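User: Assemble these into one structure.

Assistant: Restating your components, then the assembled model:
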Amino acid sequence: MGQQVGAIVSKPSFAFRRYLPHPVRLGHFAVILDHMKLSTFIITNMEQVLAEWDRFARTLELEGLPSRMEVRDHAEQILRTIARDIDTEQSAEQQQRKSQGLSPSSIVASGASIYGTARQHDGFTLLQLTAEFRALRATVQRLWFAVGNALTPAHSADLIRFNEAIDQALAESVGTYVAQASRAKDTFLAILGHDLRNPLATIALSSSLLGQPGMTKEGIALLAPRIKRSASMMNSMINDLLEYARAELGGEMPMAFADSDMLDICHAAVIDASAVHAHCSFVVNAKEPVLGCFDQIRLQQVFTNLLNNAAQYRGDEMPVTMTLSSDADSATISIQNSGALIPKEAIDAIFDPMVQLAIVPEQRERATTSLGLGLYIAKKIAEAHDGSIGVESRDSTGTTFTVVIPKVRPSY
Amino acid sequence: MNKSILIVDDEPDFLDVIEVALMMGGYHVMRAKDGKHAWDILENQTPSIILSDHSMPRMNGCELFDLVRNSRQGKNVPFLFMTAMPERITSVGTYSVLRKPFQFDVLMAKVDSMCS
């Protein structure tokens, strides 16, 4: 191998000098690299590889995803897994079988499977997932070649192992991702059917009762509002579904901004929620009007939805509190109940129904409007105001949804 | 004396309506808002038949069914699942299923036959 040193020496570019392992000096560069396996190169230069990959990944329209640090952590895990795989002994026969997809590495399989699950939970699209792997492969190879690695037999063997591992990791991740997404869609459809049939059951049974001999005026008075409420609930679910479908198909949510008072919007939402939850006490903490340019109907929809959720999941007899405050730039509306806490894994995905359904599809015993579409739409409406929505769930304070809406109309 | 029916559902409007339906059919009705509530009632009373939703908070219909079937007082009580998602029923044992939505006539035919 020593004789090949002269052959692989090439002047490293100035830009890449910062990627060299600390003890390496340019004078010894080729000699050390001659003995450095690709796995060692990856581990030794992890930070630099990730930094380069991060810059590259930012060009792939990976905007609006979880924090870059989180993404980097996952990429690092994958690289370390691949480096371990490269170092694992492999016979010629094993390599042959592996290249045909017959004997995948169990190390890579489990790591990538976790990665695919995490990405689906993070809300990545399949395109974004594959783009990440593309970026990872390109980055490592670019840096590996940039230090002057010609294809010696040892290096090309490493490169083959690396590509095999990346391909396998990608295939495993995509497989897991697709399985998760498919399961979430199945669950979505099942729950949609369930949630629509429940109020429909009330309507069907009530209407068939109305035609029974012996039906009294008192009976009619009991059935009529229940039919009305159930129809209203179904209508609301269908509207949510249409909004969701429109957003998922890339359509813009129609907005109608006008000068209005956030206090009026809050009161209107409380009236709506009180009609549905007649036995729930709604407490409004608001001192004065908060004027701004808002879409009154849309925000009322957001607050009604949050109030309904808070009432539905509150502890017995506990009130739901709505608080309105403001500063010079924005209005802040918080809705709080003291029901059972929302688990951490559900909090992380609470505004994305597909992700939410993929996390705990079987354990969830859901009540009426339970697809989570309302929260998804609430987030879209807040964002259409250039605002935000968040949630906290703590033992001491219960669960609080907070909506922040700028007072001025968005400039888009 | 009228036969008694325990109805279990977390949807209060549906519970009200089915109560009216069963009372019109001549039954005495006990109500529970979920499986846990139903199990509390069953500690002191034994209905002629149990009608239960499946998906409910705290304790679902299958969990209730399993408890009832393993109890001394409830092991022979006819059990009817009323659910929009029968495919979610995983319990093993003897029970009937009525898929939501259903009409009054269908409900009464089922309940009458189970009680007789």
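The first strand of chain B starts at residue 4 and ends at 8.
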